[in-house]
Design a protein that fits this description.
This protein has 368 residues and is α+β, with helices and mostly antiparallel strands. Helix content is 25%, strand content 41%.
Length: 368
């Protein structure tokens, strides 16, 4: 047998193989799976069923319940104009007044004529009484008797005519003061001091905001479920966090042919006048009758891969269950799926859970 001495090259090659073998052993050891994850801390609630009612949220614009174009009933020159745009006025408060000098002169003249006619009428009554007495004694003729009756009647009618004229002039004087027909805000001015106003001419636009009206477009699929008098809730973008109660007062029977929606008008109370005309309103209308449904908190839903799931806890282990949200309510969701009343469902700590993972419940379950 021939003996070959080891060369330095062969020694170097053996050393390299030995190092690679040690690295391969280290990588295999590092690839070993962990012995197990610790239980994940979670909070749970007990699934329950409760009575719910579906609703639809629609967008509209707040408008005044009352809007009036206050106008002058008589023609005249504006003498005073205290009503200014943006001002709040009470019912009966002066908006504008017209000059009444000519009317006052007519009133004085009619008053004087009335006094004269009244004196003549009273004298004619006395004369008629005397003529009647003389006629009964056949001391005057029938013609004298008839003339006295005609005179008394004519003066009575003249007196009535003058009284009507006085009432007419007084009415015109009264109408020369344009008063607010209801409490509200002046939104526009149509005249000013020194300007001539025609009979029926506008003075100011007045709106009443103690109640506001919102018209919303209701899809035809819901129109059979909405009735006059139904309660509604409204929110306003300009008043975040506030909800306003109201009622449906009109469901217009004619649909918008292009949008296939029915105009629904709701009225909202606004005693503190915080709602202004033109504000955007989001009105929530209840549709259909209340019914019993299985609901879970919104926090129990987990979105994965475009689908929604929930985690059920049993024996400190979670099971991932696919669910289909049917309707959203204030803080719960009606769902369809393999979820039943009485199950424990994870509402906190569910973002990183995996199916079959052990969990540790942080607190006793409460009713959903």
């Amino acid at each position: 047998m021939t003996y070959l001495p080891k060369s330095p090259i062969w020694l170097l090659f053996g050393l390299i193989l030995a190092v690679q073998g040690l690295q391969g052993c280290s990588e295999q050891e590092a690839a070993q799976p962990p012995t197990g994850r610790p239980p994940a801390p979670v909070r749970v609630v007990t699934v329950s069923s409760q009575q719910v009612q579906r609703s639809v949220s629609l967008v509209g614009t707040a408008e005044p319940r009352k809007r009036s174009l206050a106008a002058s009933e008589v023609a005249g020159l504006v003498k005073a104009f205290p009503g200014k745009e943006g001002q709040f006025v009470k019912k009966g408060q002066l908006l504008a007044s017209l000059r009444t000098d000519t009317l006052n002169i007519r009133l004085d003249s009619a008053g004087a004529s009335h006094r004269e006619a009244k004196a003549r009428y009273e004298q004619a009554e006395k004369d008629l009484d005397r003529i009647k007495m003389l006629f009964s004694k056949e001391l005057v003729t029938q013609k004298e008797m008839d003339d006295a009756v005609v005179e008394e009647s004519a003066l009575e009618k003249r007196l009535i005519q003058l009284e009507a004229e006085i009432r007419l002039v007084r009415d015109q004087v009264t109408k020369s003061r344009i008063l607010a027909p209801f409490p509200g805000w002046i939104t526009k001015e149509y005249t000013e001091i020194g300007q001539w106003v025609e009979e029926g001419g506008p003075v100011v636009e007045l709106v009443d905001l103690s109640q506001v009206e919102v018209q919303v477009p209701l899809p035809e699929e819901y129109v059979r479920d909405v009735r006059v008098g139904d309660p509604v809730m409204a929110e306003f973008d300009a008043l975040p966090g506030e909800e306003v109660k109201g009622t449906v007062f009109s469901v217009v029977a004619q649909a918008d042919r292009s949008a296939r929606t029915f105009p629904v008008k709701v009225v909202l109370a606004n005693p503190d006048l915080r709602i202004k005309s033109g504000m955007v309103a989001r009105v929530k209308l209840a549709v259909g009758a209340p019914y019993q449904a299985v609901v879970i908190p919104k926090d129990a839903l987990v979105l994965k891969g475009g689908k929604e799931f929930a985690f059920i806890v049993a024996n400190n282990t979670v099971t991932q269950v696919a669910v289909i949200p049917v309707a959203h309510f204030a803080d719960v969701v009606e769902v369809q799926g393999a979820i039943e009343e009485g199950m424990q469902i994870v509402v906190e700590g569910n973002e990183r859970l995996l199916p079959g993972q052990s969990v540790r419940i942080l607190e006793e379950p409460t009713e959903a």
